[in-house]
Amino acid sequence: MKKSFVFLLVLTLALSFSSAYSQDFISCIESDSANASSISQLIYTPGNASFQPIWQFAVQNTRFLKPSTPRPSIIVTPTDESLVQTSLLCAKKHGYEIRIRSGGHDFEGLSYTADVPFVMIDLNNMRSIDIDVANSTAWVGTGAVLGELYYSIAQKSNNTLYFPGGTWPTVGISGLIGGGGTGNLLRKYATAGDNVLDARIIDVNGKILDRKSMGEDLFWAIRGGVASSFGVVVAWQLQLVPVPEKVTVFIVNRTLEQGATELFYKYQSLATFEDRNLYIRSQAASEFIGNTTQKTMRIIFQGIYQGTTNELIPVMDKVFPELGVTREICQEMTSVQSTLVFFGRPSTTPLEILTNRSAIPKSNSKTKSNFVRTPIPISGLEKIWSKFFENDLSGGLLIIPSGGRMDDYAETATPYPHRAGTLYLLATSVSFVGQANDTTPVSLRRLAWLQSLEELLTPYVSQNPRESYVNNNDLDIGVGAANYMEASVWGERYWKRDNFRRLIRIKANVDPDNFFKFPQSIPVFKRRGLAQ
Questions:
Q1: Are 504 and 531 in contact (CB under 8 A)?
Q2: What's the whole-number average pLDDT of the chain?
Q3: pLDDT in tens, 421-437
Q4: What Rg do the C-alpha atoms of the chain give, in angstroms?
Q5: Torsion over CA of 53, 58, 64 and 70, rounded to 10 degrees?
Q6: Residue 435 and residue 443: Cα distance in Å, rounded?
Q7: Which residues contact 322 (CB under 8 A, 6 or more apart)?
């Protein structure tokens, strides 16, 4: 009885202290604002009825919705740059860390969780999109998501312009660019980060900087080095790219019994094909054969060609006739319609769904990534398939091909280093669908399987370093940052040595006290010379 009373007393005191602590932050915000009453409507604490719905709305990976996931102390939902500036400075003054959320697709939930008291700046309200068709550019608020951007571009340009971003509509533009950004136009126009012209960023001192005032070093860093390590980007100026009014999409399904292994083996060399208009991604998973207990692999090849069916067929007959792409399975559509198809909707779906964040499904998974530079041999593929047969149908594999325009850029052009010589990005994942959370016995078995698959892949993926994609961040590969040796374990996997060292030097210049920090953020070392 006495122990229970003491626990409740401690809990009550802790909550009271936390409430007072939060009030200090709010008072700081209000004292620096001309209209305190309107500002107060943009700030939420756990006692507010809207706090949980706002936090939960953009938690795009539902495995983080469990009760044990740490929530923010305060959520700020700014509508303009001035509240971002004030929030940043007040967080510094009152000892909070900050987390910056755009679309909420961080694979490890780092934009909305932390193990320390933190303020979450939710940029959902700052999602203006201004398209300049004449100059093929766009200024985009950092709270905008890809679906909103694509819809706006298509409407304003009459389907003649697009942006080389990803395929999932609710991915935030800032998170995508901050890690480089891959998508269906990768082989034609390279990464999203390669197509940024300018940005507006609020630095650690609350100053708003554009490309000219921030300098080329910082502008380089935020286009692939995880922008939130350096400040709060509030807007991006994008280079829009020309696309044909009609593109051609096809989908081919094959199982092992239908020769999928041999098809996949040849498919791996797509990056060496000269025609940059052709992009084919693939997905693979295991399934039961009919009503039996025997398993097979099904591989789905999803292709898009920047041109008509008449232009595509001769290309496929030349470079990949074994896939059997015929006119009957080809469908011509606009670029924005192809985005619908690549996230699993019919091309006839009303385009407005791209602007409806609530209509887009969320994930419930854990993902790992690697890059492949040499085709995996048939024997290696068969080992991978056998590993999938050990899984309970919760595992998946996604291939993002490279080559084409990507080969024109040096590894150091932006922080994204996976350039010439890269065949494809290989992402592996497990789903927790059907489980209460990611810590049930079944979930833990799935995670152990995913790790065993990662170990199996070791001989077949890039080495020295073993490369990973920072937008598929994975805390399992390390979080240590006490010195360069510790940080290089994960940092060189994402950015390679030269880029990682440059990022560290830039970080030391723009955020020397490491205010913008989180697991796997660009580190600041206490002793000079450790990044050399």
A1: yes
A2: 94
A3: 999 999 999 999 999 99
A4: 24
A5: -60
A6: 7
A7: 259, 262, 263, 266
**pTM assigned to the model:** 0.94
Q: Is the pLDDT of residue 171 over 60?
A: yes
Give which of 490, 496, 498 is closest to 523, Cα–Cα. 490
**Distance between alpha carbon 426 and the CA centroid of its chain, in Å?**
15
- CB 225 within 8 Å of CB 231: no
Interatomic CA distance for residues 364 and 216, integer angstroms: 38
Residues 6+ apart with CB under 8 A from 296: 255, 256, 257, 286, 287, 288, 289
Displacement of CA 299 from its chain's centroid (Å): 24
Is 60 exceeded by the pLDDT of residue 81? yes
How does residue 532 score in pLDDT terms, banded at 50, 70 and 90? Answer: very low
CA atoms of 395 and 374, how far apart (whole Å): 23
Helix, strand, coil % in the chain, rounded to nearest 5: 40, 20, 40
CA separation for the pair 219, 472 (Å, rounded):
22
DSSP 35-65: -HHHHHTTEE-TTSTTHHHHHHHT--BGGG-
Residue 361's CB is within 10 A of a number of other CB atoms, namely: 11
Comparing CA positions, the residue from 454, 471, 367, 380 lying closest to residue 418 is: 471
Tens of pLDDT, residue by residue over 107-148, are 999 999 999 999 999 999 999 999 999 999 999 999 999 999
How many angstroms separate the CA atoms of 450 and 453, rounded? 5
Beta strands in 444-507 (DSSP E): none
